[in-house]
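re: ur question from yesterday

yeah so i grabbed the chain u mentioned. its 205 aa long if i counted rite. heres the sequnce exactly as i have it in my notes:
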Amino acid sequence: MTVLSLSCNPSGSKDQMTVFIGRREFITLLGGAAAAWPVATQAQQRSGTPVLGFLGSATPQLWADRLRAFHQGLNESGYFEGRNVKIEYRWAEDQNTRFTSLAEDLTRSGVDVIAGCSFGAALAAKAVTATVPIVFAFAGDGGSLTEMYRLNGLYAGRILNGERPADLPVQQSTKIDLIINLKSANALGLTVPLPLLGRADEVIE
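ran it thru and got these structure tokens back, copy pasting raw so excuse formatting
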């Protein structure tokens, strides 16, 4: 099984996460870098339409923008839902304890690749399958969520095309979203300049 991480933390922070798995294989995320577990697994090629499993933590309504970005990445790799790829969606509805059972359900359905929404979702998928490639997204401070999910879809499509996950290069988003939390700013007695508000990608009131 291969787990591929996509990082969107261009801030240059020193946060580091290391996860050790069997046979001394590991993945390290440092300052926005990402790597893949070096296992030679790839999506099994089937004669019919490939099936992609998508494991989300919330609901499709809340994730509409992320899903659009994910589909954009798939489209860039030549895959279009309903035309040449089928997508099986499973939603945890903000109950992360459901990840394992949902991942098991995706595995039983015979998906070729599982795209996870988070590190927790990827770990849950890893625990239930040793054969299905897993792609997951990892966002750091300031990272663009939409760009992160576009990359997620792009990598899933490349694996469906037969590329070995271990051979795919490390990807890092260079786009940063400016999100201003006015509620927190007001609580701290801070005034956000209007020009800065005008440049924000999202304002939380």
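noticed a couple things. The mean pLDDT is 74. also Residues 21 and 27 are 9 Å apart (CA to CA).
anyway ttyl
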